## 1
Amino acid sequence: MSEISRALPRAKLTALMETLRSARKVARVVTPGGVAPRGYPPSRKCQSPRFQSLVEEDCQRIFEIAKSVSAFETHPCVLKLGGADDPTTYTPDVLVWMKDLGAFFEIKPRGRLHSEKVQRRLRDVLHRLAEHGIPLVLMLDEDARDQDLQRELKELQRLRPARGRFRADVDATEWDPLFKQAVSDELLARWRNAQRLCDELLTRVMRRDPDDLFAVATK
């Protein structure tokens, strides 16, 4: 399966989302007494970024820098996947837009896949989404942290010009979308190499069959 087959045209995916949208609101990320790493990081590609784990934060860093990703939405909506007597719902971790194509991402630590309960839930969600013609991409912590990639991405994010307020009318894949500061050839080369690595990573992840991940986890 190609990475394109795991993404849908914007108009089609948007229409499907509206058909399946639940009246339930997306759960709050930061709650009193919460102990898990959670927060609202700055972003040039996401208007309301939020993460509920360090794994989600790391994966969002990939989306933020990948040149193929034009925008993304975190926990975009609650989808109702059951019938009239079935309360099953699902909230995608991230909706990634690649210009006119979109794809849902579920982000998990690989260790969670060893849980039979987690596997059953994911398989059920994958099956129910597939019934509506919606693919789901599974992305793991080891994907986002491959070969110490996160160290370089964090450094580049630190060195980028200040973001300021979110703007949807600029090309967020540029090093400095507003062209306010000069950038050295060396730093620009690092930026472009990081974008290439992120794009290659996303291509691998979107081509992967989720069943292969489950098979390895159960060995």
## 2
Amino acid sequence: MDSNEHINITRVASAHSVQTSLEAIRTGDAGLSKRRANMLSRVPNIGEYASFQRESVTIEDLAYLSAQEGDEFALLRSKSSDIIFHGDKYGCTFTNDL
């Protein structure tokens, strides 16, 4: 096995692990980590947003929040911060300045 093949196997296993975790959250068999629960506590309602330290939020974090709430979340990244926006079950609509 060459080194590229090993990397691909690792990524597949990791993706499967994430998928399993997301499904457990969706079905109510698991909850968010303390860090992600804190993120959600700052944007608990549709239409709310909050700033976080730049590059502290990942797309994977948004997947976990979406699995927990059944809503969409958007990540906006500025020069100085990350912003999480809590959308509804259909998407994220920005009606005000963030």
## 3
Amino acid sequence: MAKHMRYRKPKRTRHGAAFWDKEYSQAEHLALSENASADLIKFVRWLERETKRTILNPTSSVLDCGCGNGRNLIMLAREFGMHGHGFDSSSAAIKEARRLSADQQLTYDVRSIAEPLPLPDASQQLALDMMTSHFLRQAEREQLRDEIYRVLKPGGYFFMKTFLKDDDLHTAQLLKERPGPEPGTYIHPVIGVPEYAYSEAELVAFLGERFIVHKTYASHKHKSKG
């Protein structure tokens, strides 16, 4: 008697922009929200206390490097009247950002943040890099940092959210078992691209070459969960 063999084709793996296009079209791996990041809100409250809205006001422009669906820019526009620019490599994310921002003075472009920023010198009061530049290679991270410094006005602020590897057992395991092409990188197990993890000392030193680092804080207790 003949046996019929059934073979299930392996699921197609998407990398980089293709992964994010799929997630923003039909989320499978990540829970994507339209609400502003809680960490950005915490930073904004601190900035409001420190600057008395000299930064957070309708005359100020904000840059978001890796803006996704625009949720953080939208919050700044709606709450403080700010205008600004968002760049993201995912065309699906930018399409969604434009849809959600139809009533705001916000512009979006499909663009890699590894490229020079198409903005004039000293034109932005605020810049954001939230869980984005750790996908870049070292030379690209340095260029982005320097480009953000270039486009920020004197006295402007840069808010960065990224991974820290200090006491994080999961990151240590990834660095050991899935090493990337550069020191401090591993290959992301889902997206399949290199991802860089700073130590806090490395991050402060990296930013300190161009900026005054006012504050760092951990937003989650990775150590307690291993």
